[in-house]
Amino acid sequence: QVQPVESGGGLVQPGGSLTLSCAASTSLFSSRGMGWYRQAPGNQRELVARIMPGLSPHYADSVKGRFTISNNRNWSTMYLQMDSLKPEDTAVYYCNTGSQPFNSWGQGTQVTVSS
């Protein structure tokens, strides 16, 4: 199983912005949608944002109004625009399908929000 590739993470100050990108590894994204997940040390992996074909995007309550998920026409690329970042957003961010996610999680991209 070839996992999608995440990129765009980095170190930013509180209130800053980052845009994450995901290169899809399979056309299954076109039917299963796309999702961004994150995991911080000591925390469970959580769904941050998800976009499914024909449906409005879904966001975790903790990021509503601050994050925006989008994808290209062919569901081969996904983005997560993150604004007004908070220290509690610090985590490794992963992309996967929005439903029936792959069992294997890739490298992810580290987002660190700190002064």
Could you characterize what this model shows?
The chain has 115 residues and is mainly beta. A six-stranded mixed beta sheet has the order 2-10-9-4-5-6. A four-stranded antiparallel beta sheet has the order 1-3-8-7, with no helix packed on it. A hairpin with a 6-residue loop joins strand 4 and strand 5.
Number of distinct beta strands? 10
Helical content band? under 10%
Beta fraction of the residues? 35-45%
Order of helices and strands: EEEHEEEEEEE
SSE-based structural type: mainly beta
Determine the N-to-C terminus distance. Answer: 38 Å
Low-pLDDT segments: none
Shape: globular
* Count of DSSP-assigned helices: 1
The main β sheet shows up as: 6 strands, mixed
Summarize the structure.
The protein has 115 residues and is mainly β. The chain has one helix at residues 29-32, and strands at residues 5-7, 10-12, 18-23, 34-39, 46-51, 58-59, 67-71, 77-82, 91-97, 109-113.
Helices, strands, pairings?
Layout: E1 5-7, E2 10-12, E3 18-23, H1 29-32, E4 34-39, E5 46-51, E6 58-59, E7 67-71, E8 77-82, E9 91-97, E10 109-113
Parallel strand pairs: 2-10
Antiparallel strand pairs: 1-3, 3-8, 4-5, 4-9, 5-6, 7-8, 9-10
Give keywords.
115 residues; mainly beta; six-stranded mixed β-sheet; four-stranded antiparallel β-sheet; 1 helix; globular
